[in-house]
Amino acid sequence: PDCAARADGAPTATATATVRCGGGCRRGGVREAISPSIDEDAGTSVDDDDAMNGCGGASVLSSSVAMSRGGAGATTLAQRAKQRATGLRKPSAFGVVPDACARVDFAVIGSGIAGLSYALDAAEVGDVAIITKASAFEASTSYAQGGISAVVDKLDSVDEHVRDTCIAGGYLCDERAVRVMVEDSRAAVETLIERGTRFTRRESDGALHLAREGGHSRHRIVHADDMTGKEIERALLEAARAHPRITFYEHHFAMELLKTRDGESPRCTGALVVDEASGTTTAFVASSTVLACGGAGHLFPSTTNPVVSTGDGVAMAMRVGATVANMEFMQFHPTALFTGPGGATKLVANENAFLITEAVRGHGGQLYNALGERFMSRYDAREELAPRDIVARSIDSEMKRTKSNCVFLDITHVGADEIRANFPGVAAELAKRGLDMTTERIPVVPAAHYMCGGVSTNENGETSLRGLFACGEVAYTGVHGANRLASNSLLEGVVFARRAVASVTDEINALRAELPALDVDEDELRRWLEKECLALTRACATSSAFVTKDDAWERDMRAEIQRTMWNAAGIVRTTVEMEDALRKLQTLSRACEDRAAVCSGYTMGTAEISNLIVVGRLMLRCALMRKESRGLHYTLDYPEPVDDEKKPSFIVEDVAADASQRAPTSPR
Predict the structure, then answer these.
(1) How much of the chain is helix, strand and coil, in % rounded to 5?
(2) How many Å is the maximal CA-CA distance in the chain?
(3) Does 388 participate in catalysis according to the annotation?
(4) Could you tell me if 205 and 515 are in contact, meaning their C-beta atoms sit under 8 angstroms apart?
(5) How far is it, in rounded angstroms, from Cα 351 to Cα 331?
(6) 314-to-256, 480, 494, 583 alpha-carbon distances in Å
(7) How far apart are CA 470 and CA 476, in angstroms?
(8) pTM for this predicted structure
(9) Listed residue (241, 129, 249) closest to 195, CA to CA
(10) Mind listing the pLDDT tens digit for each residue in 507-566?
(11) Which of 451, 443, 296 is nearest to 356 (CA)?
(12) Which of 31, 319, 388, 393 is catalytic?
């Protein structure tokens, strides 16, 4: 494979594998999976004084993330962590002994629409632990404005929705998976309503009000004004909190996935979780483990994602050898509010980009450049209703052509009362910033919004590792292809979460039987972990504060990662810049490892940075594999689509030199 190269550009010996890829064989041609060693390069390390910032030292890492001359003789993170481990977390064959162990049926990592939908269905089968690293409401779902696409109108059809999805996806979608999703769309909406979601309805007859967004040929967006995600999250959270078999573990950080040592048929057995307040660790041993923890928008300096979106799920899955796919396709929403010089007022210094919903353009909103010219007709006949990838690239082109910081979205030609009635949330947010969208144009820029790739699954949410499921943005189901159609994300989250529960229910007794009994004694559970599960490389949370505040090292490291990714993997890419960025991220990875070693373990910030680096490297490697431009991946070196390249990009890491720890090489 083209990406089988060391980060410094030199070729490296790789092993290829035929992998299940969450059903990849059904997709009509895939790139060969590769499994290079995670530590591809002899990297450098930071001086202990630099790494000590936030761990008792005074040195601050500069914005350029200065490196010292480490070299191949440096001890590994695992060795140094063991050397520095505290008595409470002494080294063992399992890596580091957790402070506590718990046996559960279902461990759900994430609390958005996918995780909560899964939990509510799974609770009818067994006890569920929902693990979320912030408050449960702080999920990407809460920030979704537009709505959920569904075929509910008699003038619409499944075939039309499938066609719109595949066109937007650059014909890289798995049409079978798309059809599964669309056929279940009405039932998904009905389930959300049954669980308490209050969608906007027509005053005339009480029927669901349907909006239209870019890329859709019909009005099919079911919504709750322009705050759909917030309303769905409210309803599902209330239902989940009221369920006696669901327990929330808020402000608990999932550090690593647990995996058995069995080389022929390894399986996921849960997750190691850190209580952010105390820094104590708990090993949740689960019959079924579900990743539903969103995307990685914070790889980039401007994102609509909440602070929790640091790629944790994809990184954890990669470290246990699960297959990931199509990571090159990062969607930049075309119209995030611009708050830079000459833009709207910032409310908070480090706030996330505020999303101006796609529905504003669907309702007649028009885009103008800094010269006051409408420009979308120069790029696409669909103008403002073109798919997001086209609109984002068009805006980027106009900003560069006019040497301006933003473009402007104008809906002032629509009546003021109609605007306020359809977009009360957007209007209220802009009013806080002194901007009236009924009389003024809105300054907008593209911002990182949605990760179309992820942990590869089949239509039942199953990954390539037995016992591990994924749903929502963290998963690659095949439905988004090279570009997600607006409002398909909430639909995907509900449909595939519910299918995953149906799938696991069929084999829950077998999955339970492979693990200690649900009422196992904690000491016996510890002994089982020690004997049966692989050692964890990141099991040690720092003995000092796990959650740091305004740590200069972490702040500068994040900024460096974001600059690197925006320059190399933003809206327009080049091979040279991506190769340089891959080398840079490898260097930053060494710095992150060294810092964790010096600090005797990971802080939450360091763990998130480590995850961002893993996901960034995956994104770059997938992008370098693709010798064409398609959908969200646009490279100046290969500016046109190529039929032979119309296939997903799969990567599976070799998690250890020991063959017994390699990812599965055949479907189970």
Answers:
(1) 35, 20, 45
(2) 75
(3) yes
(4) no
(5) 20
(6) 11, 17, 19, 20
(7) 8
(8) 0.84
(9) 241
(10) 999 999 999 999 999 999 999 999 999 887 676 666 668 998 888 999 999 999 999 999
(11) 443
(12) 388
